[in-house]
Design a protein that fits this description.
The protein is of the alpha/beta class. It contains four helices and four strands; from the N terminus they run E-H-E-H-E-H-E-H.
Length: 123
Amino acid sequence: MFYNTLGFQMHTKCFGGCSMCSFSCNATSVDFLPLPLIHDFIKQAADQRHIQHIAFSGGDPFLRYEDLRSAIQHASSLHLETSCFTNAFWCKNSREAETRIRELEKVGLDIIRISLDYQHTRH
């Protein structure tokens, strides 16, 4: 049995403060996965026929927007499907959200998942 997705927890910074967080994310975290390492793992994944999808999460990967953009572009250039998870706490208004999402779409983002569960909507 082969899995077809490689997932990245880009960092553990998040402003949600959700009690059920399985990654122990918080607003003051400084733990992160360096971008060159992310690129290297994506390249290695592309060399494996069974890996078809790269998923980005965090914390919230949008808090490292430029790195997220670069990683998505790299994965897409290697013909891998991409997705990211966000709680959208980074978003200050709908224009900013649309701009960022459209930019990511242009560099190859295929799927965006937004957390709308009870814990996330409380904040």
